[in-house]
Design brief:
Length: 85
């Protein structure tokens, strides 16, 4: 995500290949409506979502923008798939 043409959000997501292959989940771009809603559309609704939030200093690679002087916030959603018998 960009703000004033500067990156303000970097996202890494990991999905099982059996679910992601041939879908937007396998592409390097933003998913319209969000990944949780898209997974539901694919037949994999989340039962609940837990999100871990942490803060740290920017890495040397991330220190390429003026905003890098601020702490980096990490938001890590951890969706739980429904139980399947």
């Amino acid at each position: 995500m960009l703000f004033n043409e500067q990156p303000v959000e970097l996202t890494d997501s990991y999905y099982p290949v059996a679910i992601a292959r041939g879908t937007w989940l396998a592409e390097s771009r933003k998913i319209p409506g969000g990944a949780v809603a898209y997974l539901t559309d694919l037949g994999h609704p989340a039962r609940r979502v837990r999100e871990d939030i942490s803060a740290r200093l920017a890495t040397p690679q991330e220190r390429t923008t003026p905003a890098a002087e601020r702490p980096v916030l990490r938001s890590r959603p951890l969706p739980r798939a429904p139980y399947r018998k």
